[in-house]
Every structure is written in structure tokens, then in C-alpha cells.
Design goal:
378 residues
Length: 378
């Protein structure tokens, strides 16, 4: 390859990356709509098949799976709303307790740091004013964007139903694309489908188990809003690294405000540490396993990148999307070096045994071949 050919290839690759990022950013509403709908359709696919096996028509299977999804989602929102209503009723009491704790803290700072309570209040009020001015703009944006958010959520069940209804059509489409020089398109999509389904089922089960364990720990501490706090930790755990930190701070703050002894806050911290230890070492490895074999560096890069592009939703979807990208790279010979660098394999190839410019093919795990029954169609 000449120098001009290498430069031309680099320019084309750079332009492709830039155009992809621009499309992901400006088309995020439409892309997120179909990404979320596609992931849910992968998750509900076995249920739709089981209904069809019972002799019912295809539309009945798709409709049943979609209605089950709606029932579970609405039930979750109902329970969360019930807990939040209790929290709202106790908000004046919490404000009074917070004010009392604030007086104690100000007295402690005055005794230790020799900063008068008046100066502390002046600094605190200035910070609150800044937060209120910026918070007001956030609230305005939130309410002005509520209609757009609802408009983007409402079509999801409809798209999920249509994806399930037309699953055989998509299977035929991928079959007609046929075999390329890099492998079967249908085989790649089957691998992506199985990975998505396994990951989502595992994550949902981890949320339930982690939420139940955390809620039990907070109930033993007699902490208020124990169930709400427990399952908040479970849901925030979906966001790697960041969610764990935020989820652990909330029960500690509630314990400090609602309890007279600091030992309750220490107990809340202990519950968070124990549940995270169990989740990291036993629950997630056993349930989710290596369904998304992405190394920590790639995970952090994906979290930052998708967080900048799509916000909190992007951080939630970053790991499964990166896992799908790894499946695609592992299935295409020309992209296997990128799949290798994304993966968790730390047994690096011996330089003396390298036969290709970037990677030793003997050290790369072959992509999992999914039987047709596990793929997109029957």
C-alpha cells in the first residue's frame, strides 16, 4: 500500500466516524426509539413464539407479549408512584429534620473551624440561589419537553408489536442478504439477538434481587422508605460505576436526616457495601455471566461517549450496544482486531507467534453460533 492510499483510507475512515457521530447525535430521538423497541422485541421474542406454538395466530403472540410488557411497566410505575406519594406526604417533616440537622452541623463547624453561623448561612443561601436560578431553567425545560418525551415513549409498544409481528419477514430479509465474504448476515443477527435477550433478562433479574436485598437491609435498620430506596439502588445499578455511587448516597442521606444516631447512616452504608459485594462477585457473574464480554476501559469509554451523545439513556444503553458491536466485529474477519480490543481476554498473543499484522487468530474466541431456533425467526 502506497502512502497516498494509506492517507486516503485514513481520511475515509475519519469521515465515516465523524458522520456516524453526527447522525447519532442529531438523530438520537429516532435512533433511541428503534434501539429501545428492538431490545424489548428481542426480550419478548420467546414469549411470542410460545403463544404461536399453542396454535394461535402470529398477531396473537405479538399482542400477548406486548400487553405483558405494558402490564409490567405500568405496574412498576404504579408501585413507584405509591412510594413517592408517601415520600411527598412526609416532605414537610423531612424539611424540619433537615433544618435541625443543619443547625447542629453549623454549630459543629463554628466550634471547629471558627466560621460563624451567619457566614455559613450567607454562603449557603448564595449557593441555594445559584441552584434555584439554574434549577428553574431546568424545570422549565423539563416541563416544556414533557410532551416530546411522552410522544417518544408512546410509539414504543406499537413498534415492539410490529417488530414481533413481522419477525419472519425480517428473518427472510437477512437470509436474502445472503452470504458475504465476511460471513452470513443472518448468523450475525442471531448472535446479536441472543446476546441482547440474555443481557436484558439478566439485568432485570439483577435489579429485582439487588432491590429486594437492599430493601430487606433497610427494613432491618427500620429506615423510612426502605422499599423505595432499595429498588432505587437496583435501578441505578444499571448505570455502571456512576449509578452505584449515586444509589448508595441516597439512603445514607435519608438515614442522617430521619434518624438521631449516625450509626444508622453507617448501617445504611454497610447494607450498600454488602449488597454491592454480593452483586459484583456472585449475583451478576452467575446471572448475566459473560453475555457482554467488554473490558473495563471499553466500558468507561462507551459510557462517556454515549452519555455525551444521548444523556442518561445513552449511559444505560452503552454496555449492551458495545456488546452488540463486539459480536459484529467478532463475526467479521476484517473487524476481529476491534472485537479483540473491546473484549475481556487478557491473555495477549505472543509476539513471536503473530501471523497477522494486529492479532493472533488462535487467541480470539470464535463467535457463538446460535441455532436458528434461538435467532430472529422460528
Amino acid at each position: 500500500m502506497t502512502g497516498s492510499d494509506g492517507l486516503q483510507r485514513y481520511v475515509y475512515t475519519l469521515m465515516a466516524v465523524i458522520l456516524t457521530v453526527v447522525a447519532l447525535y442529531f438523530g438520537k430521538d429516532l435512533i433511541l426509539l428503534f434501539v429501545v423497541s428492538g431490545l424489548l422485541a428481542f426480550l419478548l421474542l420467546p414469549m411470542a413464539r410460545k403463544v404461536e406454538v399453542m396454535g394461535l395466530p402470529r398477531w396473537a403472540g405479538a399482542l400477548t407479549a406486548t400487553l405483558v410488557m405494558l402490564f409490567l411497566v405500568l405496574g412498576t410505575f404504579f408501585l413507584a408512584g405509591w412510594q413517592l406519594t408517601r415520600f411527598g406526604d412526609d416532605l414537610p417533616t423531612l424539611q424540619a429534620a433537615f433544618s435541625e440537622k443543619g443547625k447542629t452541623l453549623r454549630s459543629y463547624i463554628e466550634d471547629r473551624a471558627h466560621i460563624s453561623q451567619r457566614d455559613q448561612l450567607k454562603w449557603f443561601n448564595a449557593r441555594v440561589a445559584e441552584m434555584a436560578s439554574s434549577g428553574g431553567m431546568i424545570v422549565m425545560q423539563l416541563f416544556s419537553g414533557t410532551g416530546a418525551v411522552l410522544a417518544s415513549i408512546v410509539p414504543i409498544p406499537i413498534i415492539v408489536f410490529l417488530l414481533l409481528l413481522l419477525k419472519d419477514k425480517f428473518r427472510t430479509f437477512f437470509e436474502q442478504l445472503g452470504k458475504t465474504r465476511d460471513g452470513l448476515v443472518l448468523e450475525i443477527m442471531q448472535n446479536v439477538s441472543k446476546l441482547s435477550r440474555k443481557y436484558l433478562r439478566g439485568v432485570l433479574l439483577v435489579i429485582v434481587i439487588l432491590g429486594a436485598l437492599s430493601s430487606l437491609g433497610f427494613l432491618l435498620l427500620d429506615l423510612k422508605y426502605a422499599i423505595l430506596l432499595g429498588f432505587t439502588i437496583g435501578f441505578l445499578n444499571v448505570i455502571p460505576y456512576v449509578g452505584v455511587l449515586v444509589g448508595s448516597l441516597i439512603p445514607i442521606v435519608i438515614a442522617l436526616v430521619t434518624k438521631d444516631s449516625i450509626m444508622y447512616a453507617v448501617g445504611a452504608l454497610g447494607v450498600c457495601l454488602i449488597t454491592q459485594f454480593l452483586e459484583n462477585n456472585f449475583i451478576t457473574p452467575k446471572i448475566v455471566g459473560s453475555s457482554v464480554s467488554v473490558n473495563p476501559l471499553a466500558s468507561i469509554a462507551a459510557l462517556i461517549g454515549f452519555g455525551l451523545l444521548w444523556g442518561v439513556v445513552g449511559m444505560v444503553l452503552a454496555i449492551p450496544i458495545t456488546g452488540m458491536l463486539k459480536i459484529v466485529c467478532d463475526s467479521i474477519p476484517s473487524l476481529k482486531p476491534y472485537g479483540y480490543i473491546l473484549g475481556e481476554d487478557v491473555d495477549y498473543p505472543d509476539e513471536q507467534q503473530i501471523h497477522l499484522p494486529f492479532i493472533n487468530p488462535r487467541k480470539v474466541k470464535a463467535p457463538l453460533i446460535v441455532p436458528p431456533s434461538e435467532g430472529l425467526g422460528r
